[in-house]
Amino acid sequence: MEEENRQIRLQLNQLQGTAGQPADGGNYGNAAWGASADTGPDDVENTAEERANHTECPRSPTILKCEVSQNQKCILAQLCVLAVFVWLHCLVIGFKFGIVKSAVSGVCLVCPLSSVQLIHVACVCAGHNASRDVVTLVKSILFHRRNPLHFHFITDAVANQILSSLFQSWMVPSVQVSFYDADELKSEVSWIPNKHYSGIYGLMKLTLTKALPSDLTKVIVLDTDITFATDIAELWAIFRKFTDKQVIGLVENQSDWYLGNLWKNHKPWPALGRGFNTGVILLYLERLRRIGWEQMWRLTAERELMSMLSTSLADQDIFNAFIKQNPVLVHQLPCFWNVQLSDHTRSEQCYTEVSDLKVIHWNSPKKLRVKNKHVEFFRNLYLTFLEYDGNLLRRELFGCPSVISPGIEILQGALEELDEDDQCYDFRRERITVHRVHLYFLQYEYTPAGDDTDVTLVAQLSMDRLQMLEAICKHWEGPISLALYMSDAEAQQFLRYAQASEVLKNRKNVGYHIVYKEGQFYPVNLVRNVALRNANTPYVFLADVDFLPMYGLYDYLRKSVVQLDMAHTKKALVVPAFETLRYRLSFPKSKAELLSMLDMGTLYTFRYHVWTKGHAPTNYAKWRTATTPYKVEWEADFEPYVVVKRDCPEYDQRFVGFGWNKVSHIMELDAQEYDLMVLPNAFMIHMPHAPSFDISKFRSSPGYRYCLQTLKEEFHQDLSRKYGAAALKYLTAQRNI
């Protein structure tokens, strides 16, 4: 045992001499970050408790990273093994040398070598557009970072929903996210008249000492239109350069705004020299609270508003008036930490080479169209992160072992249960793959109908079906929930397409939800479920994007919901499906006109030529003369398009690509005893398009077809376990095919 202890001491000494690197970290949604969260032993001013949490070991002069060399990782691994043998002496060795066996993660943590530097970043975000901007900002930070991060978002309800869903599905290691309700802070700043386009949210950075946790001592505060070109840890390290009195770190304003010479009678708020820009702020929260920041900024604002009447640049005016009165409290940052790309700024004086840049701030309303001789370089840098594959940022930090969150632990367990030698391994893996999801990618506004009969059209699509959107919006005036399966770059192409379309721009009741691409299969049912979950009406019309509903179908369905007492019964209303093989179609305006086109051969019942059984149970012969809804029975492979309550069963996500994705859903509706009712005066028409990649794989690959058959059989077994003897008919029907 003594020999083992000697080896441990020797290797600890080696690690201290070669690394000085942190060995702990954190994960999304995990509050345990090992050592102290946001201070270091070199800080000018630490509490006694903070000093007690730190070692006196030598440190690197710059911010400490979590990365360690391969040799250091080997030493850490050996230490973990040795720690097992000295577990009985853990109290002695642990307190003396800091070796602890983690019961949670099962990894060896070498505590005293250095403290993991957790970097805190705060941002105010409200609305759909700002949420998109935040994603690009976060990507640029994650791309360069080598430290655990904790993002603090002050959000409205919209941004909270979007960003919380995004980060939960993104699952970036060593990243924690907290949200704070902006509505609870509005009363703190609503009394301040503000002319800036950011509105009340542009004043909320003033409230951070109150909004953020009281034990948080320091934070980097960023605007949403920021792009990082370096590791944010370098900016965090500047806190150590603060003097005892300094509480705020800012870059000088690079425009002439606060000089008051932009036009005749231009009267800006008071500022120190050129003033400071608040797009990037280092806030020493602990010291701000100590000097009574909340009262001080309020008194400053009240005094200046007596003559200025309102702010022009939101919180920036108040920060500058405060600094004018208290210049000793500000630490001026080098200007490359906030290169402000507005027209007529001195930003080009911040760098001799564009490689000198640290942070780019698109603070002009013109954004990417701003004038600057290097704007092409800046634009390309921004676009790189805008279209960067966010999946690539799910990388572990070396030397920062994460405490695994329950969600990730469940996924890891499911993966371990899969057999990699299974011929259908890729299909099974796809079922448990977690895709990033960005809800409400564009502006969305919906006012619920007062009679509880509203219906949302629910569908999914990929880039090759984008051309259908305008036509669907012309045919369906009600709310729509669309899930789009796209890469990051394709999502930006879609954004440009939607912003250029007069039809799509004018429709605010369409929710666009991006499911980001990952893996080799199209997870069609997962994408459908995203659209279904985010419908906001009592009823949903489960459609496909390559169908055009008849004109007036929205109002007809709402009336049918009442007539068939959908609120108190289990019904699935079937909308009969037809198709045309012509790319140019004079769309029928009535059932009579459709029947005429059917008789002339311009239209066909859907899949009549290739998959009759998929829609044959609709009983098109009866539909021709029907004037009232009629019930049909489930049959094998029936896959109609239906209207159901929003709380209907979700689609089974084991089915990916082509085959059985809708069939399985209708089967489960029948198992839950939904009555299938065909609507006599409703129809939809499938428009022609090129075959999908997945149907081509199905037709050409015996392995694909084998796996689909295997998944069908397993679905039948699961259905039998779930619904008992009532589900035996599905297995019997399948065997009789």
UniProtKB/TrEMBL annotation:
Annotated GO biological processes are: protein O-linked glycosylation via mannose
**Which is an annotated GO molecular function term of this record?**
glucuronosyltransferase activity
One GO cellular component this record assigns the protein to is: Golgi membrane
A Pfam cross-reference name: Glyco_transf_8
Its transmembrane ranges are: none
Which family does this protein fall into?
In the N-terminal section; belongs to the glycosyltransferase 8 family.
Protein name stated in the entry:
LARGE xylosyl- and glucuronyltransferase 2
